[in-house]
Amino acid sequence: MKRNYFYFTLSLVLLLISCHQSKQDQVVGNPLFGGYFGADPAIVEYEGKFFIYATKDPWGGDDLAVFVTEDFLSWEEASLNWPTKEACTSPTSMDANVWAPDVIQGKDGRFYMYISVGSEIWVGGSDHPLGPWENLKADNTPLIPSDFIEGIHHIDANCFIDDDGKIYLYWGSGWDWVNGRCLVVRLDDDMKTFLEEPQDVTPPNFFEGAFMIKRNGQYYLMYSDGMAINETYHIRYSVGDTPYGPWREGKYSPILESTPDGAVVGPGHHSVFRVHNQDYILYHRIYPQEQEYVLRQLCLDSLNYDAKGNVLPISLNSVPPFQ
């Protein structure tokens, strides 16, 4: 009996070790979802889980795609009550669907989403990443209407909270794949009230998809350039001493672009997040296919720096599971 118990215990221990080693041997490969098509990913971490929000392809849907994971290997799909094309339509709205989410946890612990719908920027709030969400504006209007400033495509918002607690909103693009403009404004703690007039802070070679991070006292304004429908799309960055610039383009910019072998096509519109003192970049790339519309897939890689703080070109290596 004791011998049987010993062998049972030994077998159980070996099984647990094997499962642990199997998990360690796994890697997070690209694309994250082989059969799913989406773009413009945003991400937040909450209570041990990661929540990814994305534009539905082709070219946006009536709502957002949402995925939940603990390790980037196993996924659950979720849905949100807001934003929707119906809920986010104003007298100044244009035809564009629900695009380019940006989600951040505010200083008050709540979650805030900046979303492009109808070529306008809307802002919502929630106590949980999965909602329920509601428009922060009591009159149910966009935060930034399509006609806010002439000549600018008012999409692709990104909210950044600095070390001193000041809150900034970046946004903007161009029309017909040219003349991209980037604006920034300081926000009040309510995440919706402008504390100043918006300023044009367009960095070199900018088109859309601004995303701000701060590392070692420097501001890294990251963004996409080129055409999102083909291999010219890629990710660049510029560095400044303030949230407003002035900007100098990074030494290795662009840091992520199409590869000659066609394995990566048109990577862009990314987010950056940090886990265990390691930065990661979440982005989309084009799925090659014969249709006239574009399909994109979500990808993940590590984001690294050299000794002088320059962002290194993305290595396209697999990353280990998140634990």
Protein described:
By secondary structure, the protein is mainly beta. It has one domain (34-303): 5 Propeller (Tachylectin-2, Chain A), CATH 2.115.10. The chain is built from one helix and 19 strands. It has one helix at 2-25; strands at 38-46, 49-56, 65-69, 75-78, 98-105, 111-117, 120-126, 134-135, 158-161, 167-171, 183-187, 199-200, 208-215, 218-225, 234-240, 248-249, 268-275, 278-286, 296-303. The strands form five sheets. The chain has a four-stranded antiparallel sheet with strand order 1-2-3-4, with no helix packed on it. The chain has a four-stranded antiparallel sheet with strand order 5-6-7-8, with no helix packed on it. A four-stranded antiparallel sheet has the order 9-10-11-12, with no helix packed on it. Strand 13 (208-215) and strand 14 form a beta hairpin.
Task: Please give a handful of descriptors for the protein shown.
globular, Glyco_hydro_beta-prop_sf, hydrolase activity, hydrolyzing O-glycosyl compounds, disordered N terminus, four-stranded antiparallel beta sheet, polysaccharide degradation, Tachylectin-2, Chain A, 19 strands, 323 residues, Glycosyl hydrolase family 43, mainly beta
